Amino acid sequence: MLHAGVRAVIVLALTVAGVVAGALALVLSPWWSLLAVPLLAVGLLGCYDLLQTDKSVLRNYPVLGHIRYLMEEIRPEIQQYFIERNYDGRPYDRDVRSIVYQRSKDIEGESPFGTERDVYQDGYEYFAHSMSPHRPASERGHSQAGEGTGDAPPRIHVGGPDCTRPYDMSLLNVSAMSFGSLSANAIRALSMGAARGGFAHDTGEGGISDYHLEGGADLVWEIGTGYFGCRTHDGDFDPRLFADRAAHPHVKLVSLKLSQGAKPGLGGVLPGEKVNAEIARVRDVPLGKTVVSPPYHRVFRTPRELVLFIARMRELAGGKPAGFKLCVGTRRDVLAVCKAMVDEQITPDFIVVDGAEGGTGAAPLEFTDHVGMPLSEGLYEVHNALVGCGLRHRVKLGASGKIATGSDMVRRMIQGADYTNAARAMMFAVGCIQAQKCHTNRCPVGVATQDPRRSRALHVPDKADRVFHYQKATVHSAMQIMYSLGVDHPDGLRGHMLYRRVSPQAVRSYADLCPPLKPGQLLDEPPAAWAEDWKLATPDSFAV
To answer: I want to staple 413 with a disulfide (CB 3.0 to 4.6 A). Which of 272, 395, 396, 490 is the partner?
Structure first.
């Protein structure tokens, strides 16, 4: 890609050439206008593309970038052609991009002529609305949320009995994406948008950068197996560095990443050529040296040690909420951790369940397609295990994995989550077009690259505004759905409100598909479906 200065010179040269040709057409011969008109058109269009801040593609690829938007105009026909022939496996993401684009631009997203989905296809899900929908406070002539605040969405109080500095979490937040994977401008835009909207921004495991702090967002500091930002020279956990950085006022929660949906059970490698001075400083790693994140943690080996380390993190963070994120592998592992919580009488303040369908970064195809539990099942396992052990009231559950719309949010909250996180949709809001060049450092819109020539195209104020509008509109959509179900808070959602078609002739509610346990039931008399796993789970060993 040409340097920004070179692009500007070329565009200016075309414009000047067009002006000269126009002058020659007036002075010498009108035939010069055949050259003047296209040169001026291209030059002026290029000038507009370089100066506008709305579309990053055009800032990086003036004039030529319009080909992409021309193709979008005929996209529905192309999309249908490929879907009918099963050549295209990603219609979901294209539909979501359209929704996110509309909401991030503060555009009404209503459409006529009903659903285009096959409601009789196996797997189709729908909400069972109430004949007596909830009436928002503003429609009843007063505000329950306080004078002048209107119908403010509820917030989720995160902080168990051992937490001294709890945090009120938004229903939708920015999921974990690291600086290094995303550009500085992308992180800036996410942070500024989150600060404006009052929702949390997960740093990802790449450490806390200056760009996370610039926007003033409330941060969830995520620690992975590489302990970036709080590691010793040999890659171990450094409690002194952790306590120092966790004390920052923007850090509101601390989280230990056990696994992620894109590649559960797999570590990562950051090539040395990508470890520039800035990334080396943020991650506390040597400049220019390849950095390996192992698939396992050094700080624990057993469920009991995991629970004790979470308590240590909370203490080192000065009483701020501490928790962990995982993509669920087996029910037995989840029960082993719950048994450790019961034995030690220590619980995390939150657990984020990541679905195997999630993941915004590059990962081996076999892992993305075949390793890890999908989010619906993962939420069911963790939620019910906590309920069955009598611990659910002490732990808040977050959900992440292809969450992009209000219906996604409500579905996951019905399945057990208290709040949700989005990564893919937030990337769309800051301009991602899914060019799938994330791992090449050649992202055409400056989102997933460390190339300053590319990332400069991402205009931070504009994209921060889009992040803010997208999150606000999506939470509003979720609240509208909850109102239609007759509730005004996630606490009121139940499994019988969500139905799934299991065959062309039958539908079943999630209350039937995923029978809920009673509080403390596992401690008293485990049901038959859980008895074997409960018996084999031990707080001193993970399943193999």
So the answer is: 490
